[in-house]
Automatic annotation (TrEMBL):
PANTHER family: DISEASE RESISTANCE PROTEIN RGA4, TRANSLOCASE OF INNER MITOCHONDRIAL MEMBRANE 13 HOMOLOG. This is Disease resistance N-terminal domain-containing protein. The keyword Hydrolase does not apply. One of its GO terms (molecular function) is nucleotide binding. It comes from Citrus limon (Lemon). It comes from the Eukaryota. Signal peptide: none annotated. The lineage of its organism: Eukaryota, Viridiplantae, Streptophyta, Embryophyta, Tracheophyta. Coiled coil: none annotated. InterPro entries: RX-like_CC, Rx_N. The keyword Lyase does not apply. Residues 5-92 form the Disease resistance N-terminal domain. Pfam families: Rx_N (PF18052). Keywords: Nucleotide-binding, Plant defense, Repeat.
Amino acid sequence: MAHAIVSSLLDQLKSIAQDQVKEKWRLVTGVEQEVGKLTTNLQAIQAVVEDAEQRQMKQDKAVTFWLDQLRDASYDMEDVLDEWITETRKLQLDEGGDDDDDDDNDSAFVTFLTKVCSFFPAASNCFGGFKQLSLRHHIAVKIREISKRLDEIATRKDRFNFVENVSNNVRNPERVRTISLIDEGEVCGRVEEKN
């Protein structure tokens, strides 16, 4: 299960990186390195997660705790990435227009900023620029927090001496040969095969 979550996160990170290049969306300075570090950590974790899941089945409580922390961090990261994708798409749709669904915490500042921007005709997209900057900062803070958590999780994985790439052995185990123990005298039909 954790393998699927980590794979999904890696796919989302790849998709976001491609969107950033295509749409010229950038995160706050320094966060791109965090995203790169996240990707590296997730790839390292993905290599050992199947061995960890096998050990979890053997009632290894420390590994179970490690996998739980990995799942929690992965779900949090997935939420942040979903938020990033949703908000960037909203901004693209609302490009040039004002938003009426502002957060209550920022509503006074947003109202002030909107009034200030209206006095400067050259800055026609002033509010959108603020909204983009606010979004990028918000996402950047969350990415840094989750990146720190995944750093700790990736560091702790080394303590367990997991075996990398166990997937080939797990998915293709050698099949045990079986034979049927039927009394051929009691088989009805197929007379030709009987003799």
